[in-house]
Amino acid sequence: MSTPYGRYRVMAYVVGTLLVVLVFVGVPLKHFAGRPQVASVVGVAHGVLYMVYLATALHLALLRRWPLLKILVVFAAGLVPFLTFYMERRVTREERALS
């Protein structure tokens, strides 16, 4: 985790997991069971950690000179359930090809 790539991977998994929990557990509990606690706690955690994810992704993107479209897709991945996991795998394949 001491490299920009390692930090990006950790943040991708954390943000992706929080988003899945928020969308598939927190929101249904809030709307169908009247229990907003999970959505509020996980929502705040996801929001704060999404900002960290953006910073780590931008750092890696600048180091690797990613095209703008790829940067935008990686940024958007933190807002679409399961997309962070897919993009993390693509970035991992590219990183392994570089070494």
Walkthrough of the structure:
The chain contains 4 helices and no strands. It is mostly helical and 99 residues long. It has one domain. Helix 3 crosses helix 4. 24% of the residues are buried.
Structural class: mainly alpha
CA-based shape: elongated
Radius of gyration: 15 Å
Tell me the count of domains. Answer: 1
User: How far is the first residue's CA from the last residue's CA?
Assistant: 17 Å
* Beta strands, count: 0
What sequence of helices (H) and strands (E) makes up the elements? HHHH
Assess the beta-strand content as a share of residues. Answer: under 5%
Mean pLDDT: 96
Helix content: over 70%
| Unreliable runs | none
Secondary structure tally, helices: 4
Main sheet characteristics:
none
Summarize the structure.
This protein is mainly alpha-helical and 99 residues long.
Features:
mainly alpha; 84% helix; elongated; single chain; 99 residues; 0% strand
Chart the SSEs and their pairings.
Blueprint: H1 4-32, H2 37-64, H3 68-77, H4 83-98
Helix pairs in contact: 1-2, 1-4, 3-4
